[in-house]
Amino acid sequence: MNYHFRTAELSEIDSIWEILQQAIQRRKKDGSTQWQDGYPNPEVIQKDIEKGEGFVLADGETIIGYSAVLINDEPAYATIEGNWLTNDDFVVMHRVAISEKYLGKGLAKLMLKNIEDFALSNNIFSVKADTNFDNPAMMKIFETLGYIYCGEVFFRGSPRKAYEKVLHKQD
């Protein structure tokens, strides 16, 4: 397998949107309210990419995963019912999705590890994320990778479970 993680290009919006639509349908099938309100959408992805914040996981030339990766840019995280582990610079991930054809191969974990490497390469030692209360698969991935549950944050009026992982300098 030739997996690599890189910034997305505008020409890849259709492939990325297809992966996100699959994830939106999976969330719906699982009975989740997450991503069932017209968000995310192609305009959101286009903005991610234009700002240099859209990232893809690719298998050779094939896009198999997507995530927005932002530095210090999540106003909703300023207010948490609970406490973050750190108050320093942080990387935040949103819109994490893996292609249906590649599910069950540990690729969401691989993408999170790549996001952690991205943080470290920018001398940032905290990764923050959130997920819906009805997304046990994502919560399990966070817990497996050592993310700590910190409390609740609110997005578009809904509470979300907030997690943080403190990274350590590479030797």
From TrEMBL:
Gene3D superfamilies reported for this sequence: 3.40.630.30
InterPro entries per record: Acyl_CoA_acyltransferase (IPR016181), GNAT_dom (IPR000182)
A molecular-function term among this protein's GO annotations: acyltransferase activity, transferring groups other than amino-acyl groups
Pfam families in UniProt: Acetyltransf_1 (PF00583)
UniProt cross-references to CDD domains, sorted A to Z: NAT_SF
N-acetyltransferase domain ranges (all copies): 3-170
Protein name as it appears in the record: L-amino acid N-acyltransferase YncA
Upper taxonomic lineage: Bacteria, Pseudomonadati, Bacteroidota, Flavobacteriia, Flavobacteriales
